[in-house]
Specification:
Structural class: mainly alpha
Radius of gyration: 13 Å
Helix content: over 70%
Number of helices: 5
Order of helices and strands: HHHHH
Distance between the termini: 43 Å
Amino acid sequence: MKDHMKSLRLEHAARRALNLDSRGGMAGTIDADFIDRRGAFTVLVAALSPYYKDASTELQQRIDQIVDSFYFLQDDISDEEYFEGVEGAAEVLNEFIREVNRQASE
């Protein structure tokens, strides 16, 4: 069973990471409906990619860890496991953004 609210949380975190004002960015990828269709891993990687490009080695390793920990979202898993993972990805992405913004303001 889909849990659209969890997908919305990841959409909002990704929009925040990418500084997008509205849903459906990147040709409809940054959108809860796309996430509902098992696109969460793609959304997570898209949201983290701009931070990776010019990051320090330490930050790149942190991003690698995040991506690795949610790689299972691409697997053939139950809806319950998938949407729990979506919720976790949203939490981790939000925390990552807070951390990066905190470091940028120091």
